[in-house]
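WARN no homologs supplied; continuing
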Amino acid sequence: MYEFDSFGNPVRNWGVVLSPWTFVNVMRNIGNVVIIVVSRWARFGEDQTPTSMGTVFAILCYNNTRSSSMLHIEDSEKVAFAAICHIGFPGNSTEMIGQKLNGRSQTGRLMKAIGNVEFSAISVVSLSGLVTGSLAEMASYFIGNVPPLDNILDLADSVESWRPGDRIVVASTDFHFNQAEEFDIVECAECDEHQVKIMGPVWYTHWGEVTDGVDMRAEVGILTRNVKIRGEVADKCYGGKVCERYNYDTFGGQIRILKNFTSVRIENAELFHMGQQEEPGSHPIHFHMCLDVSHKHAYIRSNSIHNTFSRCVAIHGTHNLTVSDNVAYDHLGHCFFLGDGGEQDNRLIGNLGLGTKPGSLLPSDISGKVSTFWITNPDNELVDNSAAGSDGNGIWILMPQLPIGLSASVDMGLVRNQTARTAVKRFRGNVAHSNKRFGLRLDDELRPDGSTTPIRYIPLRDPTDPESDLAQLRLDNFTAYKNTQGVWLKSMWTLCTNFRLAENGIGIIFASSEPDDRGPHHEVLENSRVVGETNNIGEPAGRITLQTGHVVQNNRSLPRLNAGYAQVGVAFYRGPVHVISTSFAGFQANVLRPAGAIGKKFSNRYFSSPVSSIRNVTFDFVDPLNGTRFYDGDDTIIGFDDRDGNRHSVVLDWDGSLTTYPLSSVVRPIPLLVNARCVLVPSWGPGTAICPDRFTRLRVSTSAGLIPTLMTRNDLMASETEVSHFEKQISYSLNTQESYILHFNNTVPKSLTLSSYGLDLGLSQNVGICVGVNQTLSVWPLRYASVADLDELKADERNSKYFYDSTVGVIFFRFSGQYPRDELTMSNCPGEPGHHPNGVCEQRVTITLQEPNDGGDCRESAYPKYRREPTTPEGALTIPDFIN
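OK structure emitted
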């Protein structure tokens, strides 16, 4: 309830009225105007009834000269109601009860002119629980200034077939999917074939431009069809536990197609109030265990599926089905749904899905996971679809080890883990926006109980053969905006081209399935556009309280999760990852959060490649005047951690397009990594330094598993130590200009293997391992021979020598690169010239002792004997100057 004075000035927002005493309190304000509307449902306070509320309300509005329709509204009823009450002047008071139409109860605009002011009230209540279907206006305008309710929409495609009286839905273009809105088309003599006039009100901004190179125009789908298929529903939820979750009837109709059907072609139909939340398998359209339907030419095409209670189109145990050009709006649970993970060769083309709300049938139907496109087998096509708003993910591609559910007992022609070795068949032209979590997520195993867990997704050329060569996963022309995270991809050899990402909390993360694999895998983002903030500001978040307690006014919308975290376009993780020929814009810090076009994953426990790189990127801003090229925090910044993966992540600037220094490295400013040649870049965050040096990554595996280790740098000796958290791996980034010794702070294991990553021709890494004094040991490969001193070892260019100082307890190696790295080399180590630019890291040795021992900490014995002089400042970098 809102109170105005007679001149239309706001007096007080009374909020939700739960007691008749609120009405009593305003009765004394003679001449003022109160507007009361129902927004989501009619709520009466504890111990209150429609009679007690309605009786006092009639006194307030009508001085008891008439009764109010409020008397006939039940508690928690979904019904629209609006009233304008001129206190003390019952003749000027009016009210309206809503009419049910198209899944809503709505009043239309209720107007009352008082003096020179027109007061306006609108109440719209969704009957299916969709928050955006429940809207309200309480406003005052000067006479003649009331905005019209009708608006003309300009559309990209011809809409000559749309008629007055048809109903459309306009997608959200903000972070919240609930800003999708339905409208009726009205007569428009002045409209051309690309225009329609709609009857409002329009409550939210729906973006209609290609902005900063990213198409964020709102999708518009027509819901009305001549052929209507609808389920009969009750006015209220009844029976069963489902009523504890939904306060409306979710037992609708269903169409189930079974095996051996003759023909199924559903086209240009309108389906609503379909699906059943309490009955698994009861969906609006459900192909149930039909197996291969290619010879039947079955399709689901150009339908409207809206206000449904369990999914939209379910493809279950069925192959070679075409689902195209459908509009699916306002539904519970995953919408376009592949059931058990055995489904293959289906084509989802040109579909629009929006308004995806949590369901209860699967563990993944919950808020934060529910997905508009739930694709449980990569061997299917997704082309030109729009996932335009969900309470979880837009597109989620996952896979089981073997088909689950009913498909587990049917021969789907799949061997174990075949789906996890199958590249996505075709992925092009898709869009995902306004999703609570991910726009696109490619990850996770589908378990037999319907739950999910992360998976190693490694596409192979022959997915039936686990020993087959890697296959490249290709994803093209994908747009993601206004998601908490635009893209999360877990694969091995991936090429993403022509991506357009904007207004995401994080634009894209590549999460390599096996980052420490020594082979030629890599992941690439190429010829793409990544934008932070744009002119599509959305609905302003308003007052925000910072961690400091300060309150700031924010004039933009914010991601639904992690709103105070840094905004990052490309977050480097695992790898090798390469960003090539990609442009960035709109990454500027504000009082709420830092920002960087490029950065690193905030929390990282894993191995990361030392050769992940930036190549030929451009920035549409001047750093630091109106944007930030790079940002990395530490554990003093909200959202950032100080785990091994964070501290040892390296980004190589191949051509200087990031830092102005070709072949420089962006690293954490920890003593193990930086020397006198490096420079801190405070404007890029406390986690950022640039070094002119190249870095390698040393991975340690032991016969005792993950055990505590620490690393010392020989110029710093024991004054600085880097201790591994050994959460998921033992590895350290190492500066090729420095030498190091690895120690164990407990027992030295009987066997340990060292693998070095990131070495090219001309680069070498000197490292020692504390294995204990006077040990009998062997080194594999057998080509490694013992030498008499460190000088002889330093002359080794073929990875064939080691030096063991038995009095100190340290065995030393000099790992060196054998092949050159060029612009085509993307893997951790180059391939042999003339064969392939990407190769296998061969710098790997295994040390075996006769027995474990307790002499694994050599700091006292190794120093100062193996101390080396610090690197001089000659050739030191300075903070990049992007202005001059």
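The chain has a mean pLDDT of 94.
OK
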